[in-house]
Automatic annotation (TrEMBL):
Lineage, opening ranks: Bacteria, Pseudomonadati, Pseudomonadota, Gammaproteobacteria, Vibrionales
Gene symbol of the encoding locus: dnaG
A molecular function (GO) term: DNA binding
Name listed for the protein in its UniProt record: DNA primase
Keyword Ion transport tagged: no
Cofactors that this protein relies on: Zn(2+)
């Protein structure tokens, strides 16, 4: 697929998306990456925020990890969010 790049002003399309490779690239400004990279750049999100955004869009829960106590160990899964 081709289009005008959402990351810079242009009149001639230089933005390409490969559905097969699941990758985008702009030949004008050099922006490139996957769906997560696109969300991070387009919406100015941090990685975890982009993951949460995608998960929310798909109706998925994002598992959490939390430190337990002061011993530096981690808990994950349902028990981590309920502690």
């Amino acid at each position: 697929y081709g289009a005008c790049c959402p990351f810079h002003n242009e009149k001639t399309p230089s933005f390409s998306v490969s559905q097969e490779k699941q990758f985008y690239h702009c030949f004008g400004c050099g922006a490139h990456g996957n769906a997560i990279d696109f969300l991070m750049e387009f919406d100015r999100l941090e990685f975890v925020e982009a993951i949460e955004e995608l998960a929310s869009y798909l109706g998925l829960d994002v598992p959490r990890e939390q430190r337990s106590g002061g011993n530096g160990s981690f808990q994950s899964g349902p028990q981590a969010s309920s502690s």
